[in-house]
Amino acid sequence: MRIARRAVVIAAMFATLVTQESFAAAYATTRSSSTTSIHLNANNDLLVYGIGDASGYHIMAADTHRATQWQTLATLSPTIGYEGDWIGNVCITGDGRYVVATIAPRAATNSAAGIAHGGFAYSINVATRHVRPLVAGVTLASFSPGCGRDSTVALTRFLGDEDVPTQVLLFDAGNGHVQTTRTVSSEMTSAAPTSTTDAIAADGRTLVQLSAGTEHAVATLPGQIFDVHANRAGGVDFLSLDATALSTADVWRWEPNAAPALLGRGSLTTTALMNGRAGV
């Protein structure tokens, strides 16, 4: 129980919003893998997943042409004196060059503050395996990070324990710079970059475009929107709860200046969307 209590205290400490500079200085201890680099080309995709234990959060990767040859791309282990397991979420940028991960001690999920803004975000260069700290104080929700068509990634944080206000930060995963920040009073989920300055997110049943200084609804669906991903048309593909069959997920595509198009339906428990190369 001593470790568990200590972990809760640590989680509460870094749930406080942290500047990028202090994060890089104090919390950026990581280990890149020393094994042979993964070689990618335009015709190959990358398979990535993360798994955590007491030594850190391990980013595992395999080339689709060698799908059984999984390698450790990096191990993320911030030096915060935590002795328990780590958890996280990962995505691959649309250009295939970077893996972005949000991680936290498992104990962070024991508090609303930890879930709302208790995560550390990192970018890992696939070719060099260089690990770059991005920011601390982001949500542990499964939709963050949200990778776009290029090297842009959306990281979400909820500034209050009740998931409002919402702040969406668009980072360049390559250089670690913040490209834009948008704060809104409502709860926004599943933010996906559609450019270096714009993102689409879900506000309940409403699809909302977030641009520098503005926000406006682009569509309203019959059911709750989730699993939003950037597509190659400059819009997003996403799922929503079917209004007539609650065990069904509807698959939609939205493109700028057009109404959402229904692409299909599937089981709510087995239907999911995945990022593709450049939004394909």
SSE map:
Blueprint: H1 2-15, H2 20-26, E1 30-32, E2 46-53, E3 56-63, E4 71-76, E5 86-92, E6 98-105, H3 112-117, E7 119-125, E8 131-138, E9 146-147, E10 152-158, E11 166-172, E12 178-184, E13 189-193, E14 199-203, E15 206-211, E16 214-220, E17 225-230, E18 236-241, E19 248-254, E20 261-267
Antiparallel strand pairs: 1-4, 2-3, 3-4, 5-6, 6-7, 7-8, 9-10, 10-11, 11-12, 13-14, 14-15, 15-16, 17-18, 18-19, 19-20
Report on this structure.
- The N and C termini lie far apart (47 Å).
- This protein has 280 residues and is mainly β.
- 43% of the residues are buried.
- The chain is globular.
- Residues 1-22 have low confidence and may be disordered.
- The strands form five sheets. A four-stranded antiparallel beta sheet has the order 1-4-3-2, with no helix packed on it. The protein has a four-stranded antiparallel beta sheet with strand order 5-6-7-8.
- The chain contains three helices and 20 strands.
- The protein has helices at 2-15, 20-26, 112-117; strands at residues 30-32, 46-53, 56-63, 71-76, 86-92, 98-105, 119-125, 131-138, 146-147, 152-158, 166-172, 178-184, 189-193, 199-203, 206-211, 214-220, 225-230, 236-241, 248-254, 261-267.
- The protein is 10% helix and 45% strand.
- Strand 18 (236-241) and strand 19 form a beta hairpin.
